Amino acid sequence: MQSILDNLKLRYSRRNSEIVKWKDDTGGKVIGCLPMYFPEEFVHAAGLLPVTLFGGNGPITHANRHLMTNACGAVRSTFEDLLSGKYDALDGVAAVLICDQVRFFFQVWSLDHEFAFFHQMWRPFNMSEASRPFLLNELKRLKSGLEEFAGKAITPDKLRESIRLFNETRSLMRALNDIRKTRPGLLKSSDLAKAIAAGMIMPKEEYNSLLKKLLVQAQDLECEPGEKPKIMVCGHPCGMPEEEILDLIEEMGAVIVGDDFFTGSRYFSVDVPCSGDPVEAYADFYLGLTPCTTYHYPQNWIEQDRSLSTYGDYVADYVLENGIQGVILLREMYCDPFDLEFVMLKKRLEEQNIAHITLNTGHEAGSLETQRTRIQGYLEMLSL
Amino acid sequence: MIVAGVDIGSQTSKAVVLKEDHVFRSALFPTGTDLYAVARKVVENAAQELGHTFDDIQRIVATGYGRVSVPFAADTMSEITCNAVGAYHFYPDARLVVDIGGQDSKAIKINDEGKVVNFAMNDKCAAGTGRFLEVAAETLGVSVAELAALSRRSGNRIRISSTCTVFAQTEIVSLIARRTPQEDIAAGLHESIVSRVYGLINSIGPGDTGRVVMTGGVARNDAIVSLLASTMKREITVPEDPQIVTAFGAALVAKSRLGSE
Amino acid sequence: MGTEVKIGNRLESQNRLGKLIVDHYREAREIKESKRKPIVWTTTAAPNEILWAMDFCVLFPEAYAATCGARHAAYRHCKITEDKGYEHHLCTYCRNGLGSTLADIEGLDPFDPLPAPDLLLVANNSCSLITKWWEHLSHYWDVPMIHIDTPYIIPGIQEKDVIGHIKGQIGDLIRFLEEFTGKKFDLDRLREVVRNGSESAKGYTDMIKINKHKPSPSTYFDLMPHNFPNLVLRYKPEVADHYRLMKQEMNERIREGIVPFENMKHRVYWDGIPYWFAMRFLSKKLQSLGICLVTSAYSQLFAFDRSDPERPLDSVAENTAYFYLNRDVRYKAEYTEQLYRDYDMEAGIFAYAMTCKPFSITMHYIADYVQKKLGVLSTIIEGDLVDDTFFDEEKTGIRLETFAEALESNKPSVGKVVF
């Protein structure tokens, strides 16, 4: 299991050169997709390789010429990668305009840099049936844009086939996640996040077969069930969570049994329906995704006895259903949707007496030592 | 039984050596750069005060940011837990502990069993810590104690808008240039730190019953304590030696661990 | 500039504007007392004509935030939210609005609070953060909120789909309001509201353009507060008169050779939301440097120039869709370039607002763009909408002085933004 895991981690760490290699090997074309929620299946169905763009951890220099420091780490570091030539091998880039930063800034990518394919997609903020017609239009607009670029039609059958393949990926990822959940200690959370992220940059065909092998090997591995406190980690919606923080939590004796990372549950929890018209199915999928701080759920705001936060409900329910002792919230600096939702989420957790702690993370965040103290103090609070 | 708690803070290191009937002595040194040496020295000193040697100590618990650099400690424990244990020992009716140290500040909520139920630590920078006052005092060319005295004489507290220590320094310079009275600047600085700490307290929901205890070096600054008390509309208790409460808590943890073995 | 320079007194229109504003808030408080109309809080470019047509009292928390900023009360409201766990770097319009709400609910004496809402309406065409802001208002006031999803005008998007999407939601809104008020929606009344709005919009746009004249009869900061009537009161027929009279007053100034201040040397563009708490400082500083701010794309936010009584519903949807902030960055850059040409401006001050992403995140790009296209000088200053904790007078002063020195030396820089 370890050697496959190491391979996946390596692929993730070499994600930019992997693109070049894949292109050399296959002669295919690659579309970079900015997190989150890009309909990768459409890209795949057009015979192109969708890869998710994760920024690097390095210092941000070029991007500061165009962006003030009040943009989040994900936006600044991906832009930095673009300006420093790391995305030169991409044939196109695309994004769903999930938040104000991506919405207002992403287009700047195309204004100074020529991309053969450049696409911005609007996913309605209003998660209700009223949004369906427009959402369908946007999916169709993406489809025809890709068809034109790839020079081939995305037939319903092709799209359905891609959806099946991606559903398989998601289900394998869920199985991998189950290992962490049911056999704590076998799989570090930081490794899991990278293994998931590897699936977002590799061809799914190859990734699925690697993951299947890994899961078979993992079957026979045992682990010692301990009396460790069970933790859910959430927040940090777009990028790769900080490895050091996840490791600290586990080293200090807690078990992470759930997360809502983009490189975690958020990516693989829900499948796209395989029946019926695949574009319609994709709209269904969007309207039924895991609750997110970047969207508005109108029914909550009109009816009586309203919930504080759809996202908060989701976190609280997850905690209660899985016998979790506490929640660690990772807060990415300058993520406005999460920062606002945070206030209601906190209220919701307090209502339910769910112990929680907040760690500010991300680019240029506080020192690891203070994080260590916080985590240790928190785990002592849970277990003493 | 002889046990010890050692608290290696960013600026000062504290140790408490404890024996039966809660008889204890403490010691305090600037932390410096050699964490191991200072940890050893501060524990030795406290032990000597009590008429013992380092080797007499049966168990040591280390806390503070340098806790991992104390190889002779049997356990490490976060300063959050130790602070709560220490404060609860002195004041069993304490329900909120506010600790303002050199580089960080904390608000800790505890229940009637002395257990931590919630806490928060300052993040990102030194605003709302002892360091902020030191930098400000330095900029004004006075000592921290003089700064507190100045602030009490202010008739017109001005608002320091910068939340970052470094920017606040620039702001002070421009206030001086505009001939703002030192007293008013000093009062504004105290107000600024208190408002940061108050925000921290609010973030954990301070509750409205039980004793509020303030610990850490800044608890000696009565200008801060009284301003915080009036902001919170609560009385604040400051222990006789507010700086050693965390080390004392660590010693108590050492004692209970020794007992359970 | 002529040899004989006359300096203008305060515009009579400023007094008239003051009265319009005072009357508006007085009426709102009276309505709260008498409960004769439901009160709704809304956003700048939501389909507000529908609310007026349904006879709501319509209030704008964003305009209220600007007032609190100008009256140095916003930071106090913002502080309240920080104590409740809202991050310091979140939009300060939002934090001001939530802070005053919390203060009002908890009896903490907010600054001139807006009368409490019975309903909330929000469109995300300015930003998506505002939807969350409204969600929190809805929680604290415990009143329903309606959200109008406004797709960004992405280049290549089918604009008829965007309009259709908004129109569909306006239909849902009308059905909701009929139920909420128990009254029937009246299309003729809407037509009337839109007609008044279109007259007001024409007057507003005409008035703003007067500053094209050289020398400008007023500074941009004098004109800017006059977006209030077209934003808040355009459903009333008398608003068009305000702009007509104002234009007359400015034309008189032009005829008599009156300028706003002595020693006006440079015609300069202003980009971004004004720093409301620093208007006096900025005005004095800029005047002392001989810099006359002429216009800003910010004015375009309050144009509502699609209003057409012949197509009431469609034009309301279009005003919502084509709101300036909902346009893509290339559009904004080109629009700004055109303003430089139309108003013959030699340089630009770009006012970065640390907590406002829609205005600020592409500001560098736009400043670069006009500089490259026109060879003009640009400077970026840092501050915020209403919270002065993000603003440093000394630093800004030095920057503006350096900028003025560069203008004096009359050497347009090449390439990159100079500061």
Describe the structure in your own words.
Helix content of chain A is 52%, strand content 11%. With 384 residues, chain A is α/β, with parallel strands linked by helices. In chain A, the strands form two sheets. Chain A has a four-stranded parallel β-sheet, sandwiched between helices. In chain A, strands 6-5-7-8 form a four-stranded parallel β-sheet, sandwiched between helices. In chain A, helix 1 packs across helix 8. Chain B is α/β, with parallel strands linked by helices and 261 residues long. Chain B has two domains: 96 residues, ATPase, nucleotide binding domain (Nucleotidyltransferase, domain 5, 2-Layer Sandwich), CATH 3.30.420; 147 residues, Nucleotidyltransferase, domain 5 (2-Layer Sandwich). Helices cover 41% and strands 21% of the residues of chain B. Chain B is built from eight helices and ten strands. In chain B, helix 3 packs antiparallel against helix 6. Chain B starts with a strand and ends with a helix. In chain B, 51% of the residues are buried. With 419 residues, chain C is α/β, with parallel strands linked by helices. Chain C has a domain of 177 residues: Rossmann fold. In chain C, the strands form three sheets. In chain C, strands 3-2-4-5 form a four-stranded parallel β-sheet, sandwiched between helices. Chain C has a four-stranded parallel β-sheet with strand order 8-7-9-10, with helices on both faces. Chain C has a two-stranded parallel sheet with strand order 1-6. At the A-C interface, helix 5, helix 6 and helix 15 of A face helix 6, strand 5, helix 7, helix 15 and helix 16 of C.
